[in-house]
Amino acid sequence: MKTFFLSMSILAFALLAANDLYAQADTATIVGTVRDSSGAVVPGAAVTVTAAETNIASATRTDTAGNYVITPLKIGDYVVAVEAQGFKKQTHSGILLQVQDRVRVDFTLAIRLRRSLRLGIGLP
Length: 124
Known about the structure:
Blueprint: H1 2-25, E1 27-36, E2 46-51, E3 57-61, E4 67-74, E5 76-83, E6 90-97, E7 102-104, E8 107-109
């Protein structure tokens, strides 16, 4: 009985370990840094990675150094978008991930210009 229990425990452990290895084998990672046009990092920017085939999205925010990491991602074609307050949204498409890739996708955001309307009240 002890031998049976030991054998089943080893089998269960082996199956769980194999499952973890399989999950890691077919994934990839997208990393990057978000900066503004002057080269300063943009902390707290919203980064969204969307699988082109399935439209499944993963999201994160940049850290205080402007860096982001999104993992695990299945192999395939992705679109990466970044948005931050005061900046224009920027998108990179055609990001192809292969098994175990660690692809860098950096962004340089342009300032969003706001239009103002001046009304001349009381002018002739």
